[in-house]
What does this fold into?
Amino acid sequence: MSKKAHTPKAETQAPAASPAKPFIIPYPLLWLALAVLLLYAGSFYFGYTELDDSIFIRDFKEYNENLGNLLTSFHRGVFDPVNDTYYRPLFLDSMIINYQFAELDAKWYHIINVLLHLLNVCLLYIFFKKTGLKQVQAFILSLIFAIHPVLSQAVAWIPGRNDTMLAAFTLSFFIFSINYSEKGKISSLLLSALFLVLAFFTKETAVFVPPAAFIILMVLLRNKWSDKKMLVQYGVWIAAFVLWYAVRAAATLKGSYMNPAAITSDFVHRLPVVVQYLGKIFLPFNLSVFPILEDTVNYYGISAIVILAALLIPGKNKDRRTIIAGFCIFALFLLPVLLVPASLNEQLFEHRLYLPVTGILLVLSQTVLFKNKLTDRQLLTGAVVLAMILGVANYNHQQHFDNPQAFWKEAVRTSPHSAYANMMLAARTDDKPESEALMRKAYALNPKEKYINFYYGVMLQNHDSVQASEKYLLDEKKRSGYYECDFYLARVALERNDLNAATTYLETFLQRDPANAQANNNLALLYINTHQKEKAAAQLKHMHEAGLTVDPALQQQVDRM
It folds into this structure.
Protein backbone atom coordinates (compact mmCIF):
# COMPACT_ATOMS: atom_id res chain seq x y z
CA MET A 1 0.00 0.00 0.00
CA SER A 2 1.66 3.15 -1.17
CA LYS A 3 1.63 6.32 0.82
CA LYS A 4 0.69 9.53 -0.82
CA ALA A 5 3.25 12.21 -0.59
CA HIS A 6 2.20 14.77 1.97
CA THR A 7 2.16 18.27 0.67
CA PRO A 8 2.10 20.73 3.56
CA LYS A 9 -0.39 23.51 3.32
CA ALA A 10 0.97 26.95 3.00
CA GLU A 11 0.88 28.63 6.40
CA THR A 12 -1.04 31.82 6.49
CA GLN A 13 0.94 34.47 8.38
CA ALA A 14 -0.21 37.92 9.41
CA PRO A 15 1.81 40.63 7.70
CA ALA A 16 4.60 41.90 9.90
CA ALA A 17 3.81 45.25 11.49
CA SER A 18 6.01 47.97 10.09
CA PRO A 19 8.00 49.81 12.78
CA ALA A 20 6.53 53.14 13.80
CA LYS A 21 8.25 56.06 12.18
CA PRO A 22 10.18 58.22 14.62
CA PHE A 23 8.66 61.61 15.31
CA ILE A 24 10.63 64.25 13.44
CA ILE A 25 10.24 68.02 13.73
CA PRO A 26 10.45 69.46 10.22
CA TYR A 27 12.66 72.53 9.71
CA PRO A 28 13.69 72.79 13.39
CA LEU A 29 16.08 75.71 12.88
CA LEU A 30 13.38 77.68 11.08
CA TRP A 31 10.94 77.25 13.99
CA LEU A 32 13.59 78.24 16.51
CA ALA A 33 14.46 81.33 14.46
CA LEU A 34 10.80 82.32 14.23
CA ALA A 35 10.44 81.98 18.01
CA VAL A 36 13.36 84.37 18.55
CA LEU A 37 12.14 86.93 16.02
CA LEU A 38 8.56 86.91 17.29
CA LEU A 39 9.66 87.36 20.89
CA TYR A 40 12.34 89.99 20.39
CA ALA A 41 11.04 91.99 17.40
CA GLY A 42 9.72 94.68 19.75
CA SER A 43 13.21 95.28 21.12
CA PHE A 44 14.26 96.67 17.72
CA TYR A 45 12.65 99.94 18.74
CA PHE A 46 14.22 100.22 22.18
CA GLY A 47 16.59 103.10 22.87
CA TYR A 48 19.52 103.42 25.25
CA THR A 49 19.35 102.45 28.93
CA GLU A 50 22.18 104.88 29.83
CA LEU A 51 24.11 101.97 31.34
CA ASP A 52 27.25 101.60 29.22
CA ASP A 53 25.35 101.54 25.91
CA SER A 54 25.45 105.33 25.56
CA ILE A 55 29.19 105.20 26.33
CA PHE A 56 30.01 102.64 23.63
CA ILE A 57 27.83 104.29 20.97
CA ARG A 58 27.37 107.99 21.71
CA ASP A 59 30.49 108.82 23.74
CA PHE A 60 32.70 106.66 21.47
CA LYS A 61 31.31 108.29 18.32
CA GLU A 62 34.68 109.59 17.11
CA TYR A 63 36.38 106.27 17.91
CA ASN A 64 33.70 104.28 16.06
CA GLU A 65 33.86 106.50 12.99
CA ASN A 66 37.43 105.43 12.22
CA LEU A 67 37.73 101.93 10.73
CA GLY A 68 41.45 102.07 11.52
CA ASN A 69 40.49 101.55 15.16
CA LEU A 70 39.57 97.94 14.36
CA LEU A 71 43.26 97.24 15.10
CA THR A 72 43.56 99.84 17.86
CA SER A 73 40.96 97.91 19.88
CA PHE A 74 43.54 95.16 20.43
CA HIS A 75 45.90 97.61 22.15
CA ARG A 76 43.59 99.28 24.68
CA GLY A 77 41.02 98.73 27.42
CA VAL A 78 37.32 98.58 26.67
CA PHE A 79 36.22 101.73 28.55
CA ASP A 80 39.49 103.66 28.59
CA PRO A 81 42.64 103.30 26.47
CA VAL A 82 44.90 103.02 29.53
CA ASN A 83 43.03 103.32 32.83
CA ASP A 84 41.10 100.05 32.46
CA THR A 85 41.35 96.40 33.48
CA TYR A 86 38.79 95.05 30.98
CA TYR A 87 40.20 93.82 27.65
CA ARG A 88 37.52 93.05 25.04
CA PRO A 89 38.72 94.12 21.59
CA LEU A 90 36.16 92.24 19.49
CA PHE A 91 33.31 93.85 21.39
CA LEU A 92 34.75 97.28 20.58
CA ASP A 93 35.16 96.20 16.96
CA SER A 94 31.53 95.10 16.81
CA MET A 95 30.55 98.62 17.87
CA ILE A 96 32.78 100.12 15.16
CA ILE A 97 31.27 97.90 12.46
CA ASN A 98 27.75 98.52 13.76
CA TYR A 99 28.36 102.28 13.67
CA GLN A 100 29.27 102.22 9.96
CA PHE A 101 25.64 101.55 8.97
CA ALA A 102 23.76 102.62 12.11
CA GLU A 103 25.69 105.61 13.46
CA LEU A 104 23.81 106.64 16.65
CA ASP A 105 20.53 104.87 15.79
CA ALA A 106 19.99 102.35 18.59
CA LYS A 107 17.62 100.28 16.44
CA TRP A 108 20.36 98.63 14.39
CA TYR A 109 22.39 97.77 17.48
CA HIS A 110 19.33 96.00 18.89
CA ILE A 111 18.73 94.19 15.60
CA ILE A 112 22.29 92.84 15.60
CA ASN A 113 21.83 91.70 19.21
CA VAL A 114 18.72 89.72 18.28
CA LEU A 115 20.41 88.17 15.24
CA LEU A 116 23.32 87.06 17.44
CA HIS A 117 20.87 85.39 19.83
CA LEU A 118 19.12 83.71 16.89
CA LEU A 119 22.49 82.38 15.70
CA ASN A 120 23.29 81.03 19.16
CA VAL A 121 19.95 79.23 19.44
CA CYS A 122 20.69 77.44 16.15
CA LEU A 123 24.27 76.65 17.19
CA LEU A 124 23.05 75.29 20.53
CA TYR A 125 20.60 72.97 18.73
CA ILE A 126 23.45 71.65 16.54
CA PHE A 127 25.70 71.26 19.61
CA PHE A 128 23.04 69.33 21.54
CA LYS A 129 22.60 67.01 18.55
CA LYS A 130 26.37 66.50 18.46
CA THR A 131 26.32 65.40 22.10
CA GLY A 132 23.90 62.60 21.24
CA LEU A 133 20.57 64.07 22.31
CA LYS A 134 17.50 63.09 20.31
CA GLN A 135 16.13 65.68 17.92
CA VAL A 136 13.07 66.45 20.05
CA GLN A 137 15.21 66.86 23.16
CA ALA A 138 17.66 69.15 21.37
CA PHE A 139 14.81 71.21 19.94
CA ILE A 140 12.95 71.62 23.25
CA LEU A 141 16.08 72.59 25.17
CA SER A 142 17.09 75.07 22.46
CA LEU A 143 13.58 76.52 22.48
CA ILE A 144 13.81 77.09 26.24
CA PHE A 145 17.15 78.82 25.70
CA ALA A 146 15.60 80.96 22.96
CA ILE A 147 12.78 82.36 25.09
CA HIS A 148 13.96 82.11 28.70
CA PRO A 149 13.43 85.49 30.44
CA VAL A 150 16.66 85.28 32.48
CA LEU A 151 18.59 85.64 29.20
CA SER A 152 16.65 88.66 27.95
CA GLN A 153 19.25 91.11 29.30
CA ALA A 154 21.90 89.61 27.03
CA VAL A 155 19.63 90.32 24.04
CA ALA A 156 17.64 93.47 24.87
CA TRP A 157 20.54 95.38 26.47
CA ILE A 158 23.06 96.42 23.80
CA PRO A 159 26.26 95.74 25.83
CA GLY A 160 24.88 92.25 26.52
CA ARG A 161 26.19 91.29 23.08
CA ASN A 162 29.57 90.66 24.69
CA ASP A 163 28.09 87.45 26.11
CA THR A 164 26.17 86.53 22.95
CA MET A 165 29.33 86.99 20.87
CA LEU A 166 31.28 84.84 23.32
CA ALA A 167 28.58 82.16 23.13
CA ALA A 168 28.62 82.18 19.31
CA PHE A 169 32.38 81.63 19.20
CA THR A 170 32.31 79.10 22.06
CA LEU A 171 29.52 76.95 20.63
CA SER A 172 31.18 77.02 17.19
CA PHE A 173 34.44 75.95 18.85
CA PHE A 174 32.68 73.07 20.62
CA ILE A 175 31.02 71.88 17.40
CA PHE A 176 34.23 71.86 15.35
CA SER A 177 36.21 70.30 18.21
CA ILE A 178 33.70 67.45 18.28
CA ASN A 179 33.89 67.16 14.49
CA TYR A 180 37.68 66.87 14.62
CA SER A 181 37.58 64.28 17.40
CA GLU A 182 35.16 62.20 15.28
CA LYS A 183 36.64 62.52 11.78
CA GLY A 184 40.09 64.04 12.23
CA LYS A 185 39.68 66.59 9.42
CA ILE A 186 42.28 69.36 9.46
CA SER A 187 39.60 71.87 8.36
CA SER A 188 37.63 71.15 11.55
CA LEU A 189 40.78 71.59 13.65
CA LEU A 190 41.62 74.93 12.02
CA LEU A 191 38.07 76.22 12.41
CA SER A 192 38.01 75.17 16.07
CA ALA A 193 41.27 77.08 16.57
CA LEU A 194 39.86 80.18 14.84
CA PHE A 195 36.73 80.27 16.96
CA LEU A 196 38.69 79.70 20.17
CA VAL A 197 40.96 82.66 19.36
CA LEU A 198 37.89 84.79 18.63
CA ALA A 199 36.38 83.74 21.97
CA PHE A 200 39.56 84.75 23.81
CA PHE A 201 39.53 88.22 22.25
CA THR A 202 35.84 88.67 23.10
CA LYS A 203 35.82 88.20 26.87
CA GLU A 204 38.14 86.96 29.61
CA THR A 205 35.65 84.20 30.49
CA ALA A 206 36.98 82.34 27.45
CA VAL A 207 39.87 80.99 29.55
CA PHE A 208 37.31 78.45 30.82
CA VAL A 209 36.25 77.40 27.31
CA PRO A 210 39.07 74.82 26.73
CA PRO A 211 38.42 73.13 30.12
CA ALA A 212 34.72 72.95 29.20
CA ALA A 213 35.63 71.41 25.84
CA PHE A 214 37.84 68.85 27.62
CA ILE A 215 34.87 67.81 29.79
CA ILE A 216 32.60 67.56 26.75
CA LEU A 217 35.07 65.42 24.80
CA MET A 218 36.23 63.27 27.71
CA VAL A 219 33.22 62.87 29.97
CA LEU A 220 30.28 63.36 27.65
CA LEU A 221 31.65 61.81 24.43
CA ARG A 222 33.99 59.29 26.07
CA ASN A 223 37.18 60.18 24.18
CA LYS A 224 40.46 58.99 25.67
CA TRP A 225 42.55 61.84 27.02
CA SER A 226 45.68 60.36 25.43
CA ASP A 227 44.15 59.88 21.99
CA LYS A 228 46.29 61.42 19.24
CA LYS A 229 43.51 63.75 18.11
CA MET A 230 43.04 64.92 21.70
CA LEU A 231 46.76 65.64 22.08
CA VAL A 232 46.69 67.72 18.90
CA GLN A 233 43.76 69.72 20.25
CA TYR A 234 45.56 70.40 23.53
CA GLY A 235 48.37 71.96 21.54
CA VAL A 236 45.93 74.15 19.61
CA TRP A 237 44.26 75.30 22.82
CA ILE A 238 47.59 76.22 24.41
CA ALA A 239 48.70 78.08 21.28
CA ALA A 240 45.45 80.08 21.21
CA PHE A 241 45.85 81.04 24.86
CA VAL A 242 49.48 82.09 24.39
CA LEU A 243 48.54 84.27 21.41
CA TRP A 244 45.77 86.00 23.36
CA TYR A 245 47.95 86.45 26.44
CA ALA A 246 50.82 87.93 24.44
CA VAL A 247 48.61 90.45 22.63
CA ARG A 248 46.81 91.37 25.84
CA ALA A 249 50.11 91.82 27.69
CA ALA A 250 51.23 94.29 25.02
CA ALA A 251 48.03 96.36 25.35
CA THR A 252 48.04 99.62 27.29
CA LEU A 253 46.03 98.28 30.21
CA LYS A 254 46.24 99.29 33.83
CA GLY A 255 47.96 96.66 35.88
CA SER A 256 45.89 95.44 38.80
CA TYR A 257 47.25 93.84 41.94
CA MET A 258 45.14 90.83 42.85
CA ASN A 259 45.13 90.47 46.61
CA PRO A 260 44.64 86.74 47.34
CA ALA A 261 42.98 87.45 50.69
CA ALA A 262 40.52 89.92 49.08
CA ILE A 263 39.75 87.48 46.24
CA THR A 264 39.09 84.67 48.71
CA SER A 265 36.88 86.91 50.83
CA ASP A 266 34.90 88.13 47.80
CA PHE A 267 34.57 84.54 46.53
CA VAL A 268 33.08 83.33 49.80
CA HIS A 269 30.85 86.40 50.02
CA ARG A 270 29.48 85.77 46.52
CA LEU A 271 28.83 82.04 46.85
CA PRO A 272 25.09 82.60 47.51
CA VAL A 273 24.82 83.96 43.96
CA VAL A 274 25.04 80.36 42.68
CA VAL A 275 21.83 79.59 44.55
CA GLN A 276 20.26 82.87 43.40
CA TYR A 277 21.10 82.18 39.76
CA LEU A 278 19.60 78.69 39.96
CA GLY A 279 16.44 80.31 41.32
CA LYS A 280 16.30 82.68 38.35
CA ILE A 281 16.70 79.76 35.92
CA PHE A 282 14.00 77.52 37.39
CA LEU A 283 11.69 80.16 38.90
CA PRO A 284 12.26 83.39 36.95
CA PHE A 285 10.08 85.58 39.17
CA ASN A 286 12.83 87.64 40.81
CA LEU A 287 14.57 89.11 37.79
CA SER A 288 16.29 92.48 37.91
CA VAL A 289 17.95 94.75 35.37
CA PHE A 290 20.56 95.74 37.97
CA PRO A 291 20.73 92.95 40.58
CA ILE A 292 22.87 93.07 43.70
CA LEU A 293 23.48 90.29 46.20
CA GLU A 294 21.84 92.14 49.09
CA ASP A 295 18.48 92.60 47.36
CA THR A 296 18.21 89.15 45.72
CA VAL A 297 16.36 86.57 47.80
CA ASN A 298 17.63 83.02 48.25
CA TYR A 299 14.39 81.11 48.72
CA TYR A 300 13.75 80.82 44.97
CA GLY A 301 17.20 79.28 44.60
CA ILE A 302 16.67 76.84 47.46
CA SER A 303 13.35 75.85 45.88
CA ALA A 304 15.11 75.39 42.54
CA ILE A 305 17.64 72.99 44.07
CA VAL A 306 14.79 70.94 45.56
CA ILE A 307 12.98 70.93 42.20
CA LEU A 308 16.11 69.85 40.33
CA ALA A 309 16.77 67.03 42.80
CA ALA A 310 13.16 65.90 42.48
CA LEU A 311 13.48 65.84 38.70
CA LEU A 312 16.74 63.89 38.74
CA ILE A 313 16.08 61.22 41.37
CA PRO A 314 13.13 59.30 39.84
CA GLY A 315 14.35 59.36 36.24
CA LYS A 316 15.33 56.01 34.71
CA ASN A 317 18.11 55.33 32.22
CA LYS A 318 19.89 58.53 33.19
CA ASP A 319 23.24 59.18 31.54
CA ARG A 320 25.37 60.13 34.53
CA ARG A 321 28.10 61.43 32.27
CA THR A 322 25.75 63.98 30.75
CA ILE A 323 24.67 65.11 34.21
CA ILE A 324 28.27 65.47 35.38
CA ALA A 325 29.27 67.32 32.21
CA GLY A 326 26.29 69.66 32.49
CA PHE A 327 27.02 70.65 36.08
CA CYS A 328 30.72 71.12 35.26
CA ILE A 329 29.91 73.43 32.33
CA PHE A 330 27.55 75.44 34.53
CA ALA A 331 30.19 75.76 37.27
CA LEU A 332 33.06 76.62 34.92
CA PHE A 333 31.24 79.42 33.13
CA LEU A 334 29.83 80.77 36.40
CA LEU A 335 33.21 80.83 38.13
CA PRO A 336 34.24 84.25 36.74
CA VAL A 337 31.26 85.86 38.48
CA LEU A 338 32.60 84.61 41.81
CA LEU A 339 36.17 85.68 41.06
CA VAL A 340 35.47 89.28 39.99
CA PRO A 341 36.67 91.57 42.82
CA ALA A 342 33.81 93.39 44.53
CA SER A 343 35.81 96.61 44.23
CA LEU A 344 35.66 96.25 40.45
CA ASN A 345 32.04 95.22 39.99
CA GLU A 346 29.33 94.48 42.54
CA GLN A 347 26.47 93.83 40.12
CA LEU A 348 25.32 90.27 39.48
CA PHE A 349 23.95 90.81 35.99
CA GLU A 350 21.75 88.12 34.49
CA HIS A 351 23.40 88.28 31.07
CA ARG A 352 26.31 86.41 32.69
CA LEU A 353 24.08 83.33 32.77
CA TYR A 354 24.00 83.15 28.98
CA LEU A 355 26.67 80.43 28.70
CA PRO A 356 26.27 78.75 32.13
CA VAL A 357 22.61 77.98 31.46
CA THR A 358 23.63 75.63 28.63
CA GLY A 359 25.07 73.30 31.26
CA ILE A 360 21.80 73.23 33.22
CA LEU A 361 19.91 72.47 30.00
CA LEU A 362 22.16 69.45 29.46
CA VAL A 363 21.34 68.26 32.97
CA LEU A 364 17.62 68.69 32.30
CA SER A 365 17.87 66.28 29.36
CA GLN A 366 18.46 63.49 31.90
CA THR A 367 15.57 64.32 34.23
CA VAL A 368 12.11 62.87 34.48
CA LEU A 369 10.98 65.68 32.17
CA PHE A 370 12.42 63.64 29.30
CA LYS A 371 12.88 60.21 30.86
CA ASN A 372 9.21 59.24 31.00
CA LYS A 373 6.52 57.38 29.05
CA LEU A 374 5.30 60.39 27.10
CA THR A 375 5.65 60.31 23.35
CA ASP A 376 7.85 62.81 21.57
CA ARG A 377 4.76 64.54 20.24
CA GLN A 378 3.37 64.91 23.76
CA LEU A 379 6.71 66.21 25.02
CA LEU A 380 6.77 68.82 22.26
CA THR A 381 3.22 69.92 23.06
CA GLY A 382 4.10 70.43 26.72
CA ALA A 383 7.26 72.31 25.74
CA VAL A 384 5.30 74.69 23.51
CA VAL A 385 2.93 75.48 26.41
CA LEU A 386 5.91 76.12 28.69
CA ALA A 387 7.52 78.27 25.99
CA MET A 388 4.41 80.43 25.76
CA ILE A 389 4.45 81.04 29.52
CA LEU A 390 8.16 81.85 29.55
CA GLY A 391 7.69 84.00 26.46
CA VAL A 392 5.11 86.20 28.22
CA ALA A 393 7.44 86.61 31.20
CA ASN A 394 10.32 87.43 28.85
CA TYR A 395 8.30 90.01 26.91
CA ASN A 396 7.27 91.77 30.11
CA HIS A 397 10.83 91.83 31.42
CA GLN A 398 12.15 93.13 28.09
CA GLN A 399 10.17 96.35 28.46
CA HIS A 400 12.47 97.48 31.27
CA PHE A 401 15.25 97.91 28.69
CA ASP A 402 13.21 100.28 26.53
CA ASN A 403 14.52 103.62 27.84
CA PRO A 404 16.55 105.09 30.73
CA GLN A 405 13.53 105.92 32.89
CA ALA A 406 12.05 102.43 32.61
CA PHE A 407 15.45 100.83 33.20
CA TRP A 408 16.51 102.78 36.28
CA LYS A 409 13.03 102.80 37.80
CA GLU A 410 13.05 99.00 37.65
CA ALA A 411 16.62 98.95 38.95
CA VAL A 412 15.59 100.90 42.07
CA ARG A 413 12.47 98.78 42.56
CA THR A 414 14.38 95.49 42.47
CA SER A 415 17.64 96.73 44.04
CA PRO A 416 16.61 99.46 46.50
CA HIS A 417 19.96 99.24 48.34
CA SER A 418 21.97 100.04 45.23
CA ALA A 419 23.46 103.53 45.53
CA TYR A 420 24.24 103.55 41.82
CA ALA A 421 20.66 102.71 40.79
CA ASN A 422 19.18 105.39 43.06
CA MET A 423 21.71 107.94 41.76
CA MET A 424 21.00 107.17 38.09
CA LEU A 425 17.23 107.37 38.56
CA ALA A 426 17.59 110.65 40.47
CA ALA A 427 19.59 112.14 37.58
CA ARG A 428 16.79 111.21 35.17
CA THR A 429 13.76 112.21 37.24
CA ASP A 430 12.04 115.48 36.32
CA ASP A 431 10.28 115.81 39.67
CA LYS A 432 12.82 117.85 41.68
CA PRO A 433 11.73 116.80 45.19
CA GLU A 434 11.72 113.13 44.17
CA SER A 435 15.07 113.51 42.41
CA GLU A 436 16.64 115.15 45.45
CA ALA A 437 15.28 112.47 47.79
CA LEU A 438 16.72 109.72 45.57
CA MET A 439 20.10 111.46 45.36
CA ARG A 440 20.35 111.94 49.11
CA LYS A 441 19.40 108.30 49.60
CA ALA A 442 22.09 107.23 47.13
CA TYR A 443 24.71 109.33 48.91
CA ALA A 444 23.68 107.90 52.28
CA LEU A 445 23.94 104.34 50.92
CA ASN A 446 27.47 104.82 49.58
CA PRO A 447 29.23 108.21 49.50
CA LYS A 448 32.13 106.55 47.64
CA GLU A 449 30.00 105.29 44.74
CA LYS A 450 31.44 106.27 41.39
CA TYR A 451 29.89 109.53 40.09
CA ILE A 452 27.76 110.07 43.23
CA ASN A 453 29.78 113.10 44.34
CA PHE A 454 29.49 114.59 40.85
CA TYR A 455 25.71 114.26 40.78
CA TYR A 456 25.45 115.46 44.36
CA GLY A 457 27.47 118.54 43.48
CA VAL A 458 25.27 119.23 40.43
CA MET A 459 22.19 118.91 42.63
CA LEU A 460 23.60 121.52 45.01
CA GLN A 461 24.33 123.89 42.13
CA ASN A 462 20.76 123.51 40.93
CA HIS A 463 19.70 124.63 44.40
CA ASP A 464 21.94 127.71 44.15
CA SER A 465 24.43 126.20 46.59
CA VAL A 466 27.29 126.67 44.13
CA GLN A 467 30.12 127.07 46.65
CA ALA A 468 28.91 124.08 48.66
CA SER A 469 29.17 121.92 45.54
CA GLU A 470 32.94 122.40 45.20
CA LYS A 471 33.84 119.84 47.88
CA TYR A 472 31.85 117.09 46.13
CA LEU A 473 33.04 117.94 42.62
CA LEU A 474 36.69 117.94 43.69
CA ASP A 475 36.19 114.65 45.50
CA GLU A 476 34.69 113.06 42.38
CA LYS A 477 37.46 114.39 40.20
CA LYS A 478 40.02 112.88 42.56
CA ARG A 479 38.23 109.51 42.72
CA SER A 480 37.20 108.93 39.12
CA GLY A 481 38.62 111.79 37.08
CA TYR A 482 35.19 112.39 35.58
CA TYR A 483 35.71 115.20 33.08
CA GLU A 484 32.30 116.89 33.53
CA CYS A 485 33.37 117.96 37.02
CA ASP A 486 35.51 120.64 35.34
CA PHE A 487 32.48 122.28 33.73
CA TYR A 488 30.75 122.76 37.08
CA LEU A 489 33.98 123.66 38.89
CA ALA A 490 34.35 126.50 36.37
CA ARG A 491 31.04 127.88 37.65
CA VAL A 492 32.32 127.68 41.23
CA ALA A 493 35.45 129.62 40.21
CA LEU A 494 33.37 132.21 38.34
CA GLU A 495 31.21 132.85 41.39
CA ARG A 496 34.42 133.49 43.36
CA ASN A 497 35.55 135.79 40.54
CA ASP A 498 38.59 133.57 39.97
CA LEU A 499 38.62 133.96 36.17
CA ASN A 500 41.96 132.23 35.66
CA ALA A 501 40.79 129.08 37.46
CA ALA A 502 37.50 129.14 35.54
CA THR A 503 39.41 129.40 32.26
CA THR A 504 41.64 126.46 33.15
CA TYR A 505 38.66 124.29 34.10
CA LEU A 506 36.85 125.03 30.82
CA GLU A 507 39.95 124.43 28.73
CA THR A 508 40.38 121.05 30.41
CA PHE A 509 36.71 120.20 29.97
CA LEU A 510 36.71 121.05 26.25
CA GLN A 511 39.56 118.64 25.65
CA ARG A 512 37.05 115.86 26.36
CA ASP A 513 33.88 117.51 25.01
CA PRO A 514 35.06 119.90 22.27
CA ALA A 515 31.60 120.40 20.75
CA ASN A 516 29.89 121.62 23.93
CA ALA A 517 28.29 124.91 22.85
CA GLN A 518 27.86 126.46 26.30
CA ALA A 519 31.42 125.67 27.40
CA ASN A 520 32.86 127.09 24.15
CA ASN A 521 30.82 130.25 24.52
CA ASN A 522 31.79 130.70 28.18
CA LEU A 523 35.46 130.19 27.36
CA ALA A 524 35.32 132.87 24.65
CA LEU A 525 33.78 135.28 27.17
CA LEU A 526 36.51 134.50 29.70
CA TYR A 527 39.24 135.19 27.14
CA ILE A 528 37.59 138.53 26.37
CA ASN A 529 37.15 139.46 30.04
CA THR A 530 40.78 138.60 30.80
CA HIS A 531 41.95 140.63 27.75
CA GLN A 532 43.44 137.67 25.88
CA LYS A 533 42.67 138.86 22.35
CA GLU A 534 44.61 136.20 20.44
CA LYS A 535 43.03 133.35 22.39
CA ALA A 536 39.59 134.94 22.08
CA ALA A 537 39.96 135.27 18.31
CA ALA A 538 41.24 131.69 18.02
CA GLN A 539 38.33 130.46 20.14
CA LEU A 540 35.74 132.19 17.93
CA LYS A 541 37.44 130.81 14.83
CA HIS A 542 37.31 127.30 16.34
CA MET A 543 33.60 127.73 17.07
CA HIS A 544 32.92 128.79 13.47
CA GLU A 545 34.84 125.79 12.13
CA ALA A 546 32.99 123.45 14.49
CA GLY A 547 29.64 124.75 13.25
CA LEU A 548 28.74 126.31 16.60
CA THR A 549 26.62 129.45 16.79
CA VAL A 550 28.72 132.54 17.52
CA ASP A 551 27.04 135.63 18.97
CA PRO A 552 27.95 138.63 16.70
CA ALA A 553 28.37 140.72 19.85
CA LEU A 554 31.30 138.49 20.87
CA GLN A 555 33.01 139.04 17.54
CA GLN A 556 32.52 142.80 17.89
CA GLN A 557 34.08 142.74 21.36
CA VAL A 558 37.11 140.90 20.04
CA ASP A 559 37.48 143.30 17.14
CA ARG A 560 37.47 146.27 19.57
CA MET A 561 40.15 144.74 21.83
User: Anything to note?
Assistant: Residues 28-401 form one domain. The chain has a mean pLDDT of 92. The radius of gyration is 30 Å.
